[in-house]
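Researcher: Predict the fold of 3-oxoacyl-[acyl-carrier-protein] reductase.
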Amino acid sequence: MSRSVLVTGGNRGIGLAIARAFAEAGDKVAVTSRSGEAPEGLFAVKCDITDAAQVDAAFKEVEDAHGPVEVLVANAGVTGDQLLLRMTEEEFTNVVDTNLTGTFRVVKRATRGMLRARKGRILMISSVVAMMGSAGQVNYAASKAGLIGFGRSLARELGSRGITVNVVAPGWVETAMTLAVSEERRQELFANIPLGRIGDPEEIAKVVRFLSSDDASYITGAVIPVDGGLGMGH
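Model: Structure tokens for 3-oxoacyl-[acyl-carrier-protein] reductase follow.
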């Protein structure tokens, strides 16, 4: 049965892999991006999730095209790496406003239709950094850790309405960002990953699709690491 799926930040990287996985399964998939550019075969809407008015407008556009959103993947996020003593307040708040408060905006808007339907799937994309920490990423780590508390609290609020809320925490994944890392740094990373390699975006997408499926109907409030063992024990 084809569902209305919305993936924020679904125009590239992990978000695009997730969107394509849903589309290949026959779902009606919409993606948001700041540019509004549409990846081939996908329906795209322009949306900056730091702007509540744009979030509402994007949802209306998706609802008109595909119906109420039944599966939301809150993936959009940014980095702004800097050591704490050099980090400005603006650099801290910009990352938190996108990654954490932006997710709040899209999730709150999505729950309207889900509550009426008494069903829905909400997936939030966090990071292994949320649990391990990372020097130079206090803003990013704080925002991604916040998603865990947000998601688990929301799971308790919405569970009685048939809505599940889960968090996926990827480790190092092969994207444009990680491709820019030097070979020396890549080898250092491999040494700390028990599986000895960087992950593939499709490996994240498969876990997200599982958590949105009927097979995962009794899973909510979970934090699922997909990190090759990098963050084990957290």
